[in-house]
Amino acid sequence: MARHSILSKLTIVMGLSLMLASCGTVSRVTGNEGATTDKAARYVTPEDPLARPIQVAWTSARASYCGFMFDPVKLKADYLADETRRGVDAYQLQRLSKAYDYTHDSVLKTIDSDPSYCNKERTDAIRGDLKRYLAGDYAPAARLAR
To answer: CA-to-CA distance for 54 and 48, rounded, in angstroms?
Structure first.
């Protein structure tokens, strides 16, 4: 009976682990918050509390990779200053900054191996999002490349 109980619990734990892995939450459980890939950043929902830093970092990484002329350090600083103006406390600001950095680095790593990443449709989408962010609009509404 005890063996059956242990197997049942193990099955439940394995099932939960698979569900967490499929929705990208494992990174949050392990302490790395943010998107782990270009695809994960692309499909973050606006309701996600980390949608803003993920999408701004996603756009920054993609724009840097595709050769857009802007200052990625200033973009991050301006974004975090906006969060501060919105009343985000120091702990949460640090969390947003880490999510931003993790997403930025992860996205760069995943797109680095794709020589055709910067196609016209994708750079048009990046241009629109980057322009909006540089103007101070950080709403989580980044566009996908069509």
So the answer is: 10
**Residue 36 and residue 24: Cα distance in Å, rounded?**
8
Q: Round to whole Å and give the CA distance between 9 and 79.
A: 44
DSSP class per residue in 96-114:
HHHHHHHHHHHHHHHHTT-
- The mean per-residue pLDDT over the stretch 27-31 comes to 44
| Mean pLDDT of the residues in the chain | 80
pLDDT in tens, 68-93: 999 999 999 999 999 999 999 999 99
Compute the distance between CA of residue 14 and CA of residue 58 in angstroms, rounded to an integer.
Answer: 31
Q: 100 near 79, Cβ under 8 Å?
A: yes
